[in-house]
Design a protein that fits this description.
elongated; 5 strands; about 60% helix; 5-stranded parallel beta sheet; Rossmann fold; alpha/beta
């Protein structure tokens, strides 16, 4: 309704304004508003969410070495935990790992409440970025020969996460958790736009390129020092 009122007001202004105002002010404003309407339409949002994961390999349902759940804040947590429990019950793996500051411990607590044995759970609670998710997870899991992982995060975040975990030597299998059904289309659009910016910045900085063995060893040495100082492992 608010959008219709704004468009009606612009139509009235168009009728009474000079040609200069029509061309320089009202027409650009109308174009911007129409683009916002299109970009935040539910159908556009659904197509964009599918586009984020379209380039990624499909999950064939095979067993994996471990399941890795990436934290993205409390609004994302419920869907991730439920998806992880479903995959656990399907017998995909015997190990679940949660990664992310302020997220790992709540995720693990929720998994325990769902009946996942505590000895099958692990995580790290220090990573603040997707790159640190991949690096800190690899420091803990890779020495245990956990190379093929089921990677759980939301659709906008999945492509960047997939490439980051590949960078650290994993074979990730995407398992997309849904965004909250209560979210509005503009809120979903905002999450996707932030992720586009994140993906571009990682790509331009070379943070999605595979690491050499030497680079990997250097990254691990630096990460181990941080993780020991911060007591990251949970």
């Amino acid at each position: 309704m608010a959008v219709l009122i704004v468009l009606a007001a612009l139509s009235v202004l168009w009728l009474i304004a000079s040609r200069q105002w029509q061309r320089r002010v009202i027409l650009p404003m109308t174009i911007v508003i129409m683009l916002c309407i299109i970009l935040t339409a539910p159908l556009t949002i659904e197509l964009a969410l599918k586009a984020f994961v379209l380039p990624l390999p499909k999950d064939a349902g095979e067993p994996v070495d471990a399941m890795v759940i990436l934290g993205r804040g409390e609004p994302f947590r419920y869907q991730r935990v439920n998806l992880a429990v479903q995959q656990w019950q399907a017998g995909r793996t015997s190990k679940i790992f949660a990664s992310g500051r302020l997220d790992a411990i709540p995720i693990l607590e929720d998994l325990k409440k769902q009946g996942i044995p505590v000895q099958r759970l692990g995580g790290e609670e220090c990573s603040l970025t997707t790159e640190e998710n991949g690096l800190f997870t690899s420091v803990i899991l890779k020495p245990q020969q956990n190379q093929k992982i089921l990677l759980i995060t939301d659709a906008p975040h999945m492509l960047r996460s997939f490439l980051v975990f590949q960078r650290f030597g994993y074979t990730p299998i995407p398992q997309v958790s849904a965004l909250s059904a209560t979210w509005s289309a503009p809120k979903k659009a905002s999450v996707m736009m932030r992720e586009v910016v994140g993906l571009m910045s990682y790509g331009l900085a070379g943070r999605l390129n595979p690491q050499t063995a030497v680079e990997m060893a250097q990254s691990h040495r630096s990460a181990i020092k941080k993780m020991m100082a911060w007591n990251c492992k949970v």
